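BACKBONE GEOMETRY TOKENS
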Amino acid sequence: MRKLPRAFYDRDTIAVAKDLLGKYLVHAERVGRIVEVEAYLGPHDLAAHSARGLTKRTKVMFGPPGHAYVYMIYGMYWCMNVVTEREGHASAVLLRAVEPVKNVEGRTQGPGLLCRAMGIDKQLNNHDLLSDDFYIAAPIELHTFTVVKRPRIGVDYAKHWAKRQLRFYIKGNPFVSRI
């Protein structure tokens, strides 16, 4: 595996989201193949946390690309985003599902279950994804697959942004969320 460079993340968020599919999320000894993601395009995207502006919670999103934005939902699940584009832009890609590759136990369909199975929690918020123990890597062998795009999940409050097709997943992969 080859760790992704900072330049990979410092690009258009939709391009990064699609390109994350098939890559490996590595945390300590755990490895999962990313099979489903959602793009959040910055403060103008009403579904993005950054739409509420710069806060203690969203500060990571406004920072440099290639860092993890980890936050809690429903008071019980951690979720992980990958910060994209230039510093100050506040866009990110939510990791929604991984296919277990090594040392991953439990369900991984859905962002909360993914984080639980991969051992990701608030301690990894703002973690640099170029580190040695928590990163995203390209596989040695490239596999071809079809990318499906659909509306994001659970963002009905975001008006017209709720219908935007910013959820991407690998067609036919059994680890994609069932919605």
User: Anything to note?
Assistant: Residues 107 and 113 are 6 Å apart (CA to CA). The beta strands are 2-3, 24-27, 30-40, 68-73, 77-84, 91-102, 134-138, 147-150, 167-170.
